[in-house]
Amino acid sequence: MSVKKVILTAAVTGAVHIPSMSPYLPITPEQIIDEAVAAYHAGAAVVHLHTRNPGTGQPTGDPELMRRVVEGIRAQCDVVIGCTTGGAIGMTNEERLAALPVAKPELASCNAGSVNFCFAPIADKIKKPLFDWEIPFVKNTYQVPFANTFKDIEEYIALMNQYGTKPEFEIYEVGMLSNVAYFLKRGMLKAPVYLQFVTGVMGGIPANMDNLLFLLNTAIRVLGEGNFVWSCAAAGKEQFDITTAAMIQGGNVRVGLEDNLYIARGKLAKSNAEPIAKMVRIANELGREIAAPDEARAILGI
Ligand code: KMH
Ligand code: ZN
Q1: pLDDT tens digit sequence for 143-178
Q2: 4 secondary structure, DSSP code
Q3: Is this prediction's pTM over 0.90?
Q4: How far is CA 234 from CA 105, 172, 253, 257, in A?
Q5: Displacement of CA 132 from its chain's centroid (Å)
Q6: Where are the extended beta strands (E) located within the chain?
């Protein structure tokens, strides 16, 4: 069996971590652009983007900021651009989707079901927050679910189809694979569908080997082998163990400061290029070649 080249995705800043946790978390459009371009030079074929208020670091769905970020990256490299439609916990669907018609990215996240997406325990670790919004923001995730109903998912897919954007399905729980299969059967999606197993979220499937294989084998069962391309991300300290396991299993990999602020135990990553470079070294050891952006486009069918 020939194993395809591995697509490395850099999830650059996200909407979970807060500025008080790391001085290296990209905040302004310029920082996000620089980080994305540096991650590309380190080996990323895809960047997954969120934006933040440049003054406070608070996650925002402001389409103008996303437009600036996407244009800034496109001016410097041909990395595949994936924009979030997950936004941040507490945002409305309108806020989450606002950037899509403006940025018209090749790829956008499409969250494949509702889940508790909790990161309230961050509050216990921050003694002196840099900004007033940070602690209420993380605490709010203890009581507000991340809603992605069937109706929502249908609307997100329809909008992506309208703008020629391929959905990247964020899979936080195994049952969400059946949700994707439902939309594939209805003819709203073109195979191969792209799955991102996002393990390790508090409220979602834990990041371990059993669950990685459970997700993969269930995807084969409900979608059919050949009907999907998969990648794996892991939130927190399991990140590199599980993404390495995914690579061994023939999958693609997402790393970056959205998922994990550390490059090793107790050592903050100074950039998104660092975890990408680490995965390139691991891939080299494992004999997996790294996909360039155009090779990623071919694999993903975009
Ligand atoms: N910010 C999280 C609630 C996505 O980008 O679509 C979800 C998230 C997923 O980051
Ligand atoms: Zn995201």
Answers
A1: 999 999 999 999 999 999 999 999 999 999 999 999
A2: P
A3: yes
A4: 24, 10, 9, 11
A5: 26
A6: 8-11, 46-49, 51-52, 59-60, 80-83, 107-111, 166-171, 193-199, 228-234, 252-255, 262-264, 267-268
| Ligand number, closest to the Cα atom of 111 | 1
Distance from residue 16's CA to the centre of ligand 2 (Å): 9
Atom of ligand 1 nearest to the CA of 59: 1
Please give the single-letter amino acid code of residue 253.
Answer: V
Instruction: State the Rg of the chain over Cα.
Output: 17
Q: How far is CA 267 from CA 133, 154, 218, in A?
A: 26, 41, 35
Residue 273 per-residue DSSP state: H
Give distance in angstroms: CA of 1 to centre of ligand 2.
32
pLDDT at 1: 47
Going by CA atoms, what residue is nearest to atom 7 of ligand 1? 86
- d(CA 21, CA 8) in angstroms, rounded, equals 25
Does residue 272 line the site of ligand 1, with CB under 6 A? no
φ, ψ (nearest 5 deg) of residue 169: -80, 120
Q: Which of 9, 111, 137, 231 to mutate to test the pocket of ligand 1 (most atoms within 8 A of CB)?
A: 111
- Residue 113 in contact with ligand 1 by CB distance below 6 A: no
Closest ligand 1 atom, residue 16 Cα: 1
User: Residue with structure tokens 């969400």?
Assistant: 176
What is the DSSP code (8-state) at residue 2?
A: P
Report pLDDT digits (tens) over 109-118: 999 999 999 9
Instruction: Pull the structure tokens for residue 301.
Output: 């069918």
